[in-house]
Design a protein that fits this description.
Blueprint lengths: L1 H8 L17 H10 L6 E5 L11 H10 L3 E6 L11 H4 L3 E4 L1 H4 L14 E3 L33 H33 L19 E4 L3 H5 L3 H10 L6 E2 L6 E4 L7 H22 L17 H4 L10 H5 L19 H6 L13
Parallel strand pairs: 1-2, 2-3
Antiparallel strand pairs: 3-4, 5-7, 6-7
Amino acid sequence: GTNPASAQMVGMQVVVTACDASGNVDMADLRAKCEQHSDNLACVMITYPSTHGVFETQVKELCALIHQHGGRVYVDGANMNALVGVAAPGEFGGDVSHLNLHKTFCIPHGGGGPGVGPVCVVQDLVPYLPGHASAGVAGGVGAVSAAPLGNAAVLPISWMYIRMMGADGLKAATETAILSANYISARLKAHYPTLYASANGHVAHECILDLRGLKDTSGVMAEDVAKRLIDYGFHAPTLSFPVPNTLMVEPTESETLVEIDRFIDAMIAIRQEIAEIEAGRWPQDDNPLKNAPHTAESLLGAEWTRPYTREAAAFPVAALRQAKYWAPVGRVDNVWGDRNLFCSCVPVSDYA
């Protein structure tokens, strides 16, 4: 990701540590790496809760270990929406944290960038924060950006969000995000196992649905489920990250219970379709998942040769008859597209 890339850019050596079977940092491996690199250990980067969707119970021990070897702990703020109002990185041992406003404080993704967010540090690191001489911002080092406040025009959005939510509202948003993820994990447990969870069976604000076993029983991959979700009216969750052939579901605090139930019903219905393939009633290479998404045009032709009905393709659940999203294009050959790039820009001659 971007964190090791940034470390490489400033001349640091990046050392990767292992994870244990539960998705936590492997503390034995971390201790060994700390001993091996103790003389040069600058910092460790962790995401808390982790991208595996778990609150690591040994996070305080981890931070203490790094401090013991003279290093600092950088807490990636990617999952801060599972901490706001509930826990503070500085309390469990973090020294530096970058907060992504687009993930926690209401800034939309995209928009042309650049992204913006505060970098928070413990007191003894304050003298090393960057300054900006021409803008009158004091600091122990020079500027790291031409604009002292980054993409300043978006900052009032986060300020208004925080003011309107208030402390209680922000905490409620965190609790709702965690509750929603656990609700999804629990309801889908019998259909798609959650790959990583804490010892009590709970997850943080996201859960990884393990679809890897379906390849052997039905030929279905996580991408096929993602494409089929379009037929059900959903943009798929994160696909094959951080674990290949899985879906990482992060409902956040924004989704209503009605919408979450609709998603769960769709995932259960898709699992029943996979069962049809496993039973041999649909071929592994010609079924509603492999051919998804289905466009209106593909269903309106005079001839229909698929082993499943048009109704199964378009209206797998009854609610879709009242509100149906039609995909404008069918399945795209991703590999061919990656290997055959072409520019769709307007030719320069058109500007003459």
